Amino acid sequence: MSDSISARYGDKGSQAAFQWLQDAKIDYDSSPYKKVQQLIESGRKDFEVAQRTLLDKKQVYEAELNTIPKGFVMGFLGFPKKDLSKIDIVIDDRTEAAFETKKEEAIKLR
Predict the structure, then answer these.
(1) Which residues have a Cβ under 8 Å from the Cβ of 68 and sit 6 or more positions away?
(2) What is the model's pTM?
């Protein structure tokens, strides 16, 4: 509270002979920000699950096509072989830099 008073009246406070107003501390409700944090976290979790599922499907596909009897038969019968090098997890430049340096900067909201 002393910080808010010094912000209004300066370091020495109000120098008035009579003070006709009363300062009150404003109650701050942080619940909307907590909800935003929960929404961001759930969106990140959903994205992570989707990426893991994609990588699991890729791994199973490669394993099935590269086994000796099954992969040969599937190739002989015309099962399409996809170029899986195009399928990878999604990252941006900032994420790639974080993986390389092993450091992540804090998210700035303003």
Answers:
(1) none
(2) 0.50
